[in-house]
Amino acid sequence: MAHSGAPQTIADKIWDQHSIAVNPEGDHLLWIDRHYVHEGSNHGFGQVASRNSRIARPDLTFGVADHYVPTRSREPANAEIARMIEVLNANAAHHGFQLFGMNDKRQGIVHVTMPEQGLTLPGLTIVCGDSHTSTHGAFGAYAFGIGASEVAHVLLTQTLWQKKPRQMRITVNGILPPGVSAKDMALTIIAKAGAGGATGHAIEYAGSAIRALSVEGRMTLCNLSIESGSRLGIIAPDEKSIAYLRGRAFAPAGDLFEKASEEWLQLASDQDAIYAKELVIDGSEIEPSVTWGTSPEQALPITGCTPDPAMIADEEKSRQIREALDYMGLRPGQALEGLAVDQVFIGSCTNSRIEDIRIAAAILAGRKSRVPGLVSAGSMAVKLQAEQEGLDRIFIDAGLEWGNSGCSMCVGMNGDLVAPGKRSASTTNRNFRGRQGPGARTHLVSPMMAAAAAVAGCLTDGRAMLEGRTP
Fold it and tell me: What mean pLDDT, rounded, does the chain reach?
């Protein structure tokens, strides 16, 4: 669809290229370039079957077994989970779409393995029945999560009705201090913006600190975009993202890749593009962060103390803090550093790529973990690479479990759980009540901080442990 000629953001450009029609209410019918599915998408396939129909574009549909896949072994936790995996296999066979099944060497978490395979490309519209689909925005894709009925709509039509979000730009300038990661940046942004601070917006990340992030770091940042209420997060493609995609299995090859790269670089927002909302942060002021409550916005630097609800004038905010502290078993004004943890988890679509595994291993090399923990690579490819680098032995020698790839302990729906009342230092994306299991208490941290917590047996600033060590 043609635009007015006014300066555009990257999100505007991709939207206009994919808008097919507009209804009287102002909703746009978008063409969807990639539809990623997993076991949780089976309900959508059920709706297709109830119509005695077939999916519209099996060539644009890609599946992976990830959410319910067990990671301590490859034996499903129960018969229902086994059935869900079997149904996904059956749907792939029936409809003829590409599936990276449980025993496929390309299997992994959907938001890790699809970019690895070169399926996630700049300028594409990408949807998946998973809220953290925003991860793929790290490559300059317009990527967002959808619900079960929307999954069925895309399966049947390869299109989706959407209301265009407003534009928000978050600029992070400066240089991140040593030991500070994209996860710390994301938690800082969410804490500043609030859990609803970006509601109704598409976030574009900009600034020198964003450009300095690795592609893996950008995926972590975009992954957490929705925790501030946004529809998606996006970063304009550059030479880093192009270098990452070059030679990937499903990416264009040869002259086609070079031509595509030139077009991808043109997606960057126009200089005079207008944003409805702006947030500017000095990257040099970001510290290693940890959540203390039951929402990602309830995060502070590790040097901080829990808030006192009695000091908060807003009654609703005060109540939320009081209830979060009660659930987490914490006192007002309690120091975060030194808070004992019962176990650690390193994994999830937020922090399970090779960069994450390497920095955790750098902390743990030659040291012992004081608490049990599980390390689950984001894909079989990451697992193999880590093993080739000897990183698995570092975790095992430290006393942690080295698991298979999958969502694992992030969602607590596959047998990998945190016990009721136990405290977990976790590299995951959500610390909601019961997220890692009924009654589980989750503290979101970076891979460095999770590894440091394992060594110390408590939440601690891992930067001292990282000194003199190269990830």
Answer: 96
